[in-house]
Structure formats: structure tokens, C-alpha cells
Amino acid sequence: MPFRLIVLVIIAYSVLGWQGALAGCLNLSPVLLYESGEEDYSIKMAGPILEFSSERIALRPLLHIEEQGTDILYPLGKNTSSRGLFFPVYSSRVLENSMHRTLFPFFHGSYMNTSYAGLFPVYGKFYHRFGYDESHFFLWPVYSSTTYDTIRTHNILWPVFSYCKDRTFKIFPLYGYKKNLESRHDFLLWPIFHHIRGPRNMDAMLFLFQRSYGDNYESTSILWPFFTLSRDFQAQHTSIDAPWPLIRYAKGGYEEIRIFPLYHKKIIPGTYSMKTIGWPLYKNELHHDHNGELRRHKTTILILSNHSYTINEMGQEETDTTLWPIWYQSKTSNGFSWHFPWILPLDDAGYKNNWLPILTLARSIDKDGTYLIDILWHTLHYHRDEMSSRLALSFLYSYETGVDYRQIGFFFDLINISLPTDPRPDNRK
User: Fold this and answer.
1) Is pLDDT at 167 greater than 60 in this prediction?
2) Domain range spanning residue 23?
3) For residues 161 and 168, is the Cβ–Cβ distance under 8 A?
């Protein structure tokens, strides 16, 4: 059936058919669902796959469009007013003083009204990209150069040859050095021999021996990184790894005992404490603010299942519970919600817009005086607000109550039976 005809049928049915608390509703869930209110509307087809509403247009998981931005084949593609991405061929970013766009292998951009462009790896230049003030390349990695704080480094056959006058010389991995006003780092047969002098000093013949030291600390490793003794004299802190990462003991600035995977305990006085037993079976964490007040308590079972209790900046309590992959529940000052199942425990807007509706078989939301339960994409649906409540099993059955009415409907509500109103006080809340 043509799409326009479907829309006309929906509108005609909504206007002429069912009269109730909602302005219009046609429920053929999970095949088709149409709902409209005084200021908004929603059309859903094939469960959550196809959606047209006053807030969004979606063909999940291929496309999702809303005011905040557009997702295409999430997580590969995303477009907002300041950023665009379609991995791995296209990206764009627009900021107040800069802009950059890439349609691989072409790119162009600008910084402070100065333009740049290039064709990778043939030729190109950048301004204020990748942590440098300026970058150039020609037949990369044959030749490239970078400039930071007026200091320019030349690279030939990167990362083999690098040179910066009085700063850097490198024939990788045979020999090289890099120095600044405070320190110098020499290496020989990288990564074996290292020699650093400055505020931080190090001598190493990896992986046999490594020693680093400064004015207030010293660290010595044998068979690095497995056996290490570290001391911080200012904090009066000592730690021992023997062997890393299985056994660790620390005391002073913080206390830590680790016998991996059997037991792990770490205490940072006044801010953080953690205990793990039989990793990944059990982990418990406590976070405190600078006044020592508890801000977050989190218990984790088998990495992905957890319960957290948080006191936010307003002093309000929040809880989150995940029983992966079955259940997720959240309670904040704004409301309460749960989802079943909870396949991917991701807190990401793109995932919630594109994949979560498909992977969720049942959900519930209690927010701003409205409570709903949705099972199998509106096939079984319960909705309640301050004025009315409605329970519906697709187009087969509905039961609705309001301030001064009660009714039962069958088969698109074509058979509609009014019931006597309940004289008793409304105890639905």
C-alpha cells in the first residue's frame, strides 16, 4: 500500500474512529502504531524499525534524524551542527575559530582565517592539528615536518629519521636523543637502552633493569615491569610489585594490597576506597568529596552487573542497577525507569536512539506524573497520567478510565462498552 494512503487511513481512523483520552490512536502493534496529541504525533511501523514523529524520523538502525543531529549506520556516521563523521572516509569539525573537513584522501580546513588543504599522502599542510602549531608532508612518510612553539622538526621516512637543530636527532631504532631546556633523553637500540637527565632521571637496559629517580622519588625495576620498588620521600609512600600485575603492596600516601585475582584493596584517605574479591566476581567502591561526605557507592558483580548509589551536586539521591544482560533500572529525582533485556550496557545517546529500541522487549518509565509500561513494542501497553489510564493489547482489547468514565474496547475499539464510574476515591496513584 502506498505510504500516502497509509497516512490517510491513519488520519481518517484517528478522527472518525476512537474517541477517548488520547486525541487519536490506531494500534496494530507491533506492525503499526499511530498516536497523536494536541501538539505532537507518532507513527511507528515494524516495531521500532520505522518511526515518524514530531521529534524524530528513524529507520533503525540505518538512520535516525532529530533536532540534535543525524545518525547514519550508527556508530559509523553522525552529523551535528558542529561535527560530522562517517567512518572511515569522512569527518568534519566546526569550532568558533577553526574548521576541518576530510573526505579521504582529501582534506581542507582553516584556523584563525588561515586556510590549509592537502591530498594524503601526496602533499598537504595543517594548522593547529594533532597537537602541533603547523604540520607539512610530502609523499608521507618520505618527508614531513612539524612546528610547535616555533620549534620545527623534520622527519624523513618517518619514524626512522628525525632532526631538529639543537633539539632532536633520531635514527630509529639505532640511536636518538631529544632535549629541551630542562631535560635530555637518549636511547640506543630502542627500546633496550635509555638515559634521561633532568627533573626526572632514568637509566634503563630493558627488560633487565630500570631505575628512575628525582629529588623526591626513586623507582627501581628488575625484569621490568615485573619486579619494582618505588618510594616517594615527600609523601612517605612506598610500593612493591613482585611480580606485576599479580602481587602489589603499597603504604604511605595511599594503602594498597593486591593478590590478583584473589584479593585487591586500595584506600586513598578521605576520597576513595576499593575492594575486589575473586576478580571479576566482586568489586566494591566508595567515593567521597573533599569534605569526606559519601558521593558514590558502587558494587560490581562479574564486571557488567552492578548497583550504584550516588548523591549528586544538588544533594539528591540517584541509583542505577544493572543485572546484565537481563535488566537495567534507574532512579533519579526526575523519575524512574527500567529496561528488559539490557544487552549492551552503554550510556550513549546514539546507541539509545538507534539500537536500544530494537534490543528492548519491555520497558517502563515513571516521569513528570506519567507512568507507562511497554511490552513488545506497544503490543501490550499501559499508560497512566493524572487524568486517565489506559491498558491495551494491540488492537484486540483496551480498558480505559478517566475522571468521569470507564470503558472497554474490542477490535480497534469498534465494540465499545461503557462501564459505570467507580464512586470510590481514585486510588490508582
Assistant:
1) yes
2) 1-54
3) no
